[in-house]
From TrEMBL:
The lineage of its organism: Eukaryota, Fungi, Dikarya, Ascomycota, Pezizomycotina. It comes from Penicillium diatomitis. The chain crosses the membrane at residues 36-54, 66-86. This is Uncharacterized protein. It comes from the Eukaryota. Keywords: Membrane, Transmembrane, Transmembrane helix.
Length: 153
């Protein structure tokens, strides 16, 4: 069963107001292990490793020709279907994975192009604009200090 289904059934049975386990990684791991054992816990890990290896390789190759942020966006769009299959293998029970059509479905890829490009562009803007380890509020504070300094001087 999917973790979403398990959590919904559990919440209806307990009528509790606890936050979703996706906000609490340790709780998520405990729920997955308790419901399906180690096999269920590691569901989709192979697909994740494959996707990230492919994504990193494509970004590196495209970075020779294009700026790094553009290469990231293009790689994400090209591998949108692979990301979809990774997600399906992660959230679906093993007996339902076979219902997902095999890769290389051009129509499915065309459907995923817009969401993948929006996600990759937003991710790139946040990473490039703020840099690793810098938060949005830190950037706003720095911008405010710059504006105050420019207005005073």
């Amino acid at each position: 069963m999917s973790i979403l289904i398990l959590e919904t059934v559990e919440k209806q049975a307990n009528a509790s107001k606890t936050p979703p386990s996706s906000r609490q990684p340790l709780r998520t791991i405990a729920v997955l292990y308790r419901k399906g054992g180690l096999r269920f816990l590691l569901n989709g890990i192979g697909s994740a490793c494959t996707y990230w290896a492919m994504h990193t390789s494509v970004v590196k190759l495209l970075s020779f020709l294009l700026p790094s942020p553009v290469a990231y966006i293009i790689a994400s769009v090209l591998l949108a279907e692979t990301h979809f299959l990774w997600t399906a293998r992660t959230i679906l029970p093993r007996d339902q994975v076979r219902l997902v059509p095999k890769p290389c479905d051009h129509q499915r890829w065309k459907t995923l192009v817009i969401p993948a490009s929006i996600y990759a562009a937003a991710n790139t803007v946040m990473t490039v604009s703020f840099g690793p380890g810098q938060s949005f509020t830190t950037q706003l504070r720095d911008i405010g200090l710059y504006v105050e300094t420019a207005a005073a001087g």
